[in-house]
Amino acid sequence: MGQLCSALHKRDEALRYFHQALHVLEVKFGREHPAVCDVLDHIAETLQEVDKGEEALAFYMRSMHIKEQRLGLDSPALADVCYNIAQIHAQQGQYALALQFIERVYHIARESFGEQHPLALEAKEKMQALQKLGK
């Protein structure tokens, strides 16, 4: 329901559904279970869509931490969340932080999928852009 509401631009309603789903998953599996990461990411994406980057960042960071602990530091599952964290930092003008996260995306994508994978190529392009902005 949360995704449907979000697609219909009913962000407040979407957030209510996502928070309910998060609560259910946390009770059933625990706060640090990888299953909660999808909902954390949906909450963060919805917050990001309404320009609440700081709030979104907290949910993305929690998701990243869980994925690191449960799936490993170089898990391909980390690429999306690191990319989104980089986006928020770039939007806030924190180019050095954004660069750290996009470099991580590049490393994960290159090691997991190869240098010619679209995600690796996109991350490399973003790295170059952020390096110019950071100077």
Structural commentary:
Helix content is 80%, strand content 0%. The chain has seven helices and no strands. It is globular and about 45 Å long. With 135 residues, it is mainly α. Helix 3 runs antiparallel to helix 4, helix 5 (78-91) runs antiparallel to helix 6 (95-113) and helix 6 packs antiparallel against helix 7 (118-133). The chain has helices at 2-7, 11-29, 35-49, 53-71, 78-91, 95-113, 118-133. The longest helix has 19 residues, at 11-29. It starts with a helix and ends with a helix.
Write the layout of secondary structure elements.
Elements: H1 2-7, H2 11-29, H3 35-49, H4 53-71, H5 78-91, H6 95-113, H7 118-133
